[in-house]
Amino acid sequence: MKRKCDLPIGVFDSGVGGLTVMREMIRQLPHEKIIYFGDTARVPYGSKSPNIVVHFSKQITRFLLGKQVKLIVIACNTASALALEALQGQFEIPIIGVVIPGARAAIEATQINKIGVVGTDATVRSGIYTKIIQGMQSNIQVLEKACPLFVPLVEEGFKEHPVTEEVIAHYLASMREAEIDAMILGCTHYPLLRSRIMKYLGEKIQIVNPAYETAMDIKGILAAQNLENNVAMVDTEQYVFYVSDAAEKFQEFANTVMPISVSETKVVNIERY
Amino acid sequence: MKRKCDLPIGVFDSGVGGLTVMREMIRQLPHEKIIYFGDTARVPYGSKSPNIVVHFSKQITRFLLGKQVKLIVIACNTASALALEALQGQFEIPIIGVVIPGARAAIEATQINKIGVVGTDATVRSGIYTKIIQGMQSNIQVLEKACPLFVPLVEEGFKEHPVTEEVIAHYLASMREAEIDAMILGCTHYPLLRSRIMKYLGEKIQIVNPAYETAMDIKGILAAQNLENNVAMVDTEQYVFYVSDAAEKFQEFANTVMPISVSETKVVNIERY
């Protein structure tokens, strides 16, 4: 019989962004098996309603549970913001999002108790980062700003284009004025604009990428629950990738950001779950 | 018993863009009942695979058939490009897309047989406009260009922002160089950038918005098949709106572009169809 600690971790995102979280997990938890699901048929989540994001997240959770995962990581800020509580209320398995680890890291980073948060429309509208941060430390001022053009600019390869600089200035002028000293990149695509954002806000800004903190938290939870897999893999199936559409395009992108070679991506009809 | 000509026309799009087609239908076909469906849960289609766009389009067609429509309009360039044939092969009802009417209008507009087409990634990758145009008139040169940033820029309210001018120049430089004299706006959002695009390409350019031509075609098909409704409505339910997510946001937008007041939008679980 398989021991529980041998089971894989399930990771999901609305698309490819969550790969940055998985990448960090591979670094910090090299012995774990990971199953990734990207909802490429219904991406993006950031412009959609809480109801539908909860519905999609439940379908994906049921799919991952069918793969016998031991823990689920919501590697997507929008789904973490809108669906974490609903999933934790319905499913027995440990489920972790990226918002709480990101909030904690930002509180540690700020010296002057002024934190900026950038994210999708849905994440910012939920106000979750402000709630979590002020729940942890009530005297912190939080400025949130939705930046819907960041994802399309990154996906269109405009990272180095002057237009991106103008869009950053458009969104972040109020943050620069407010002189925040820590900034949470509250969307998994945004770390790709990290250096541009730092340049605009000034080199003293502490940029928090929740992916790193999330991987740390996962490590802690696995250890606390005796779920760690400490044995080096001989299994070639250590990392498995599923999407709901366009496997080839996903795989091409995955191979540009992942430290491993992604040679197979399976398509799932996620509506059935 | 209801006569067939009294039945509504079904119109669908991946989101709100198809409202520009419906608006034109209201103008040209004031006596027709129209049922609109916007797939706001899964928008956009333009970055997705042909398989999934066909799958979504079939679900929506089944939903509309359940509402006893007499004709279906695919008011979305991507779905017209990728799914029209599949739908026509499977369903008995007349189904019309926006690509053929747009292509025909552009052929009429060009004097020098050089047409430009802008659209989503999926539409341009399909090469459908080139195929249809050259199938109608083989000596026409067609330049197609995907412009994935146009939709997010419009949706973010950047219509008048200088950034939009730069992005237009980025995408359309090769078209300006090639001195096309007719341009198809092959995505229902793009007419909102019409004046900016004209300014860049020069006032002599003929801009084709397939919405107008599509409404003309619908009129012709209804007449040919004796399906026209020529009686003025007393029915308050002349226009009915369905979406798969975020009804309120949809309705807010609809009320900014439609010549009628949209007071109700119903949410449908489209996966069930």
Give a quick rundown of the structure.
Two copies of one chain form a homodimer. The first copy, chain A, has 273 residues and is of the alpha/beta class. Chain A has helices at residues 19-28, 50-66, 77-90, 99-109, 121-126, 128-136, 150-155, 162-178, 194-201, 210-224, 247-257, and strands at residues 9-13, 34-38, 71-74, 95-96, 114-119, 141-146, 182-186, 206-208, 239-243, 265-267.
In N-to-C order, the SSE pattern of chain A is: EHEHEHEHEHHEHHEHEHEHE
* Most residues in contact: chain pair: A-B, 27 and 27 residues
Give the distance, in angstroms, between the N- and C-terminal Cα atoms of chain A: 27 Å
Largest sheet of chain A: 6 strands, parallel
Strand segment tally of chain A: 10
The low-confidence parts of chain A are none
> What is the strand arrangement across the widest sheet of chain A?
4-3-1-2-9-10
* Helical segment count of chain A: 11
Shape of chain A: globular
- Relative helix content of chain A: 40-55%
